[in-house]
């Protein structure tokens, strides 16, 4: 550095990073601007495939970045908005003619005219190249089209996606208010479960809350695929694949072929179920591994039953529709059963489903591949049944799925989508007031350039699977579609930086696929974000998320009128204790016991009590609680807080099932792994007794909460009798 200015090499590194969408300085949660370490910038650029070591590499990479678009007839992917023209830069050899057109999804052809004159030519790799702007017409329909450019015998093709200006499904909710349950499905059992909540339990939960209590939706945790066999990762937010589903949630007895099991096999399955059903009443810990082990044994027996011609045809249609993505996922499952995660075979380059390692075993493992394809078909069928049960019960939206931020580093997507993920990086979050060392989520990020080069196919296919039988999707950390915190492997979570994505493409494709599925989109937009991001999401009619305790302006809680209309508003989130526990300060006690507090516990308790009191004072002002000093029970306070959310203009109100039944224990404590039994807490009531789905129709506490919100005309009159 000279006179406070970076030297030439540092300046070149900063320029190169910014050119590739990598932030070179970060404003922390404390308001202090910090320069990103040069080592971090070089690591991120290397993961992007950009040499950035020596001064010569920096100069060469900068020149390459400037020349790269001139080497292509067309950009790899273009994203337009419905009803708007789109300018496209076309590059051809100077003096050559070019014809540009759109081949629409329906097979129709549309000319693309030139706008303006050709530019001054540039010398690119010894060839004179000129640029002109062409304009994609504004009257193209929504969908996935192909842009064609033909010049001198060469034809270039680009993916052209026309996306909604505004998501109509979400926009249609303006002026309405609907409430729904928020539940961790695995923790919600019935008398028929195998120790873990399943797809049939989801159907019953939707039917009860919709038909009896007037709910419009039920939002569940991510149901993404985990490992193909125990032991399985307990966190639903650290899946193996986000495109496919977890067979752990299958209701074995609901598979049609179950009825045709031979007597001996049926006895085996019935004994497995009988062994596991007592676990439905266990309120200490959920045991996914025992449940999954038993289910896989039963599922393999059922898979051996010959399917009827109609069922056989349906299965084959499903495999064709899901295409190579399903076959590759199933192959990974079959390989994982044979080769442990630390086997050297996984490290052979090239890796992935097109590798020699994969080709060597694809035919040999064909039967297991078929089995894992079949499991996904069963999941698909039971998810369809759950969504139909929801809408049949009067739900206007139905099941809302949750989309996790990313996947395991050694899971299915990391292997099958190797080419569009950045290697040597994980994603997380920078330090903030709650996690002052930052967070590392141990998930590889999308590679923004390669994702665009691929036409966003993997992203699109993932969305289509999640939305296939859904009334909506909640996108966890939707801010990650704008920028993600990249951490070089081996570095601390605070030693990362933000990498920016083409949010116009990612949000536009999300809106397109949701609109085609007739689904709403809820973005979890909590945390550190740039101010314009929420405005952008609102313009596209993507809902946000508001949690009662966090909605403040300079420390002062928002009045209900200040909440957003395009929003899912709730008292609670799965990263906090249930409201009964939060009011008691359980989160402070738990963080103290785990060594997660950044200040003395007395200060933390005092600050937490003051923040709670500020909210409760506002609730009293609205006449929802008696004056301060009057004894109030926990249940009455919880109901008043939910009644407060019903005063907001928010179109969607979330009711945590744990609050509806009086559960108090924390489901997940951020910043921990094995220090706390995250994602393994069964649903129970305030008396510590397991609450089953069978109990919900007559649950007086549940009915009382919905009455307090004045939202349900159909709340069971006999529930409190």
UniProtKB/TrEMBL annotation:
Its EC number is 2.4.1.25. The keyword ATP-binding does not apply. Coiled coil: none annotated. It is an enzyme of class 2 (transferase). Keywords: Carbohydrate metabolism, Glycosyltransferase, Transferase. GO terms for biological process: carbohydrate metabolic process. GO terms for molecular function: 4-alpha-glucanotransferase activity. The keyword Transferase applies. Residues 74-164 form the MalQ N-terminal beta-sandwich domain. It catalyses: Transfers a segment of a (1->4)-alpha-D-glucan to a new position in an acceptor, which may be glucose or a (1->4)-alpha-D-glucan. Belongs to the disproportionating enzyme family. This is 4-alpha-glucanotransferase. It comes from Cryobacterium mannosilyticum.
């Amino acid at each position: 550095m000279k006179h406070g200015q970076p030297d030439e090499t540092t300046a070149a590194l900063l320029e190169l990073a910014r050119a590739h969408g990598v932030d070179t300085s970060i404003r922390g949660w404390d308001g202090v601007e910090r320069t990103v370490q040069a080592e971090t910038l070089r690591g991120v650029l290397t993961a992007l495939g950009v040499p950035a070591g020596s001064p010569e590499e920096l100069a060469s990479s900068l020149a390459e970045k400037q020349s790269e678009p001139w080497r292509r007839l067309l950009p790899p992917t273009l994203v337009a908005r419905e009803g708007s023209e789109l300018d496209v830069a076309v590059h051809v050899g100077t003096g050559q003619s070019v014809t540009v057109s759109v081949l629409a999804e329906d097979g129709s052809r549309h000319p693309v005219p030139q706008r303006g004159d050709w530019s001054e030519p540039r010398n690119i790799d010894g060839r004179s190249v000129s640029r002109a702007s062409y304009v994609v017409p504004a009257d193209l329909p929504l969908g996935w089209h192909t842009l064609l450019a033909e010049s001198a015998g060469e034809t270039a093709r680009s993916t052209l996606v026309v996306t909604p200006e505004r998501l109509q499904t979400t926009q249609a909710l303006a002026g309405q208010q609907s409430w729904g349950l928020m539940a961790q499905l695995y923790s919600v059992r019935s008398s028929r479960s195998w120790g873990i909540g399943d797809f049939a339990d989801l159907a019953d939960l939707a039917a009860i809350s919709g038909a009896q209590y007037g709910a419009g939706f039920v939002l569940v945790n991510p149901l993404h695929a985990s490992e193909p066999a125990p032991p399985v990762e307990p966190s639903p937010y650290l899946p193996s694949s986000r495109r496919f589903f977890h067979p752990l949630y299958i209701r074995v007895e609901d598979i049609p072929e179950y009825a045709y099991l031979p007597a001996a096999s049926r006895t085996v399955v019935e004994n497995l179920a009988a062994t596991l059903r007592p676990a439905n009443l266990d309120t200490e810990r959920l045991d996914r591994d025992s449940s999954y082990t038993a289910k896989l044994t039963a599922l393999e027996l059922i898979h051996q039953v010959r399917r009827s011609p109609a069922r056989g045809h349906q299965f084959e249609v499903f495999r064709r529709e899901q295409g190579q993505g399903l076959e590759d996922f199933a192959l990974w499952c079959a390989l994982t059963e044979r080769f442990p995660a630390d086997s050297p075979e996984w490290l052979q380059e090239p890796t992935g489903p097109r590798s020699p390692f994969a080709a060597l075993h694809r035919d040999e493992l064909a039967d297991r591949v078929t089995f894992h394809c079949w499991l996904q078909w069963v999941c698909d069928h039971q998810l369809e049944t759950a969504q139909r049960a929801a809408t049949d019960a009067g739900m206007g939206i139905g099941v809302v799925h949750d989309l996790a931020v990313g996947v395991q580093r050694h899971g299915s997507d990391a292997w099958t989508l190797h080419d569009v993920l950045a290697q040597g990086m994980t994603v997380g979050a920078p330090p903030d007031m709650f996690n002052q060392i930052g967070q590392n989520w141990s998930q590889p990020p999308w590679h923004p350039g390669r994702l665009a080069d691929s036409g966003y196919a993997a992203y699109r296919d993932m969305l289509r699977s999640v939305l296939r039988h859904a009334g909506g999707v909640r996108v966890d950390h939707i801010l990650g579609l704008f920028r993600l915190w990249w951490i070089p492997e081996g570095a601390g979570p605070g030693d990362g930086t933000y990498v920016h994505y083409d949010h116009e493409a990612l949000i536009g494709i999300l809106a397109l696929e949701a609109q085609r599925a007739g689904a709403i989109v809820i973005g979890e937009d909590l945390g550190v974000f740039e101010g314009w991001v929420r405005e952008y999401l609102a313009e596209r009619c993507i809902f946000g998320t508001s949690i009662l305790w966090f909605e403040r302006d300079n420390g002062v809680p928002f009045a209900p009128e200040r909440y957003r209309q395009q929003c899912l508003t709730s008292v609670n989130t799965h990263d906090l204790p249930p409201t009964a526990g939060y009011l008691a300060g359980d989160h402070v006690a738990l963080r103290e016991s785990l060594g997660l507090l950044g200040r003395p516990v007395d200060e933390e308790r005092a600050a937490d009590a003051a923040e709670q009191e500020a909210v409760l004072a506002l609730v009293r002002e609205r006449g929802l609680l008696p004056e301060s000093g009057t004894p109030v029970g926990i249940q009455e306070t919880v109901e008043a807080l939910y009644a407060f959310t019903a005063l907001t203009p928010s179109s969607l109100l979330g009711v945590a099932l744990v609050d509806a039944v009086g559960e108090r224990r924390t489901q997940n404590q951020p910043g921990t792994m094995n220090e706390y039994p995250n994602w393994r807490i069964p649903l129970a009531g305030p008396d510590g007794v397991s609450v089953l789905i069978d109990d919900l129709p007559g649950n007086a506490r549940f009915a009382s909460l919905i009455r307090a919100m004045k939202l349900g005309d159909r709340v069971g009159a006999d529930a409190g009798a």
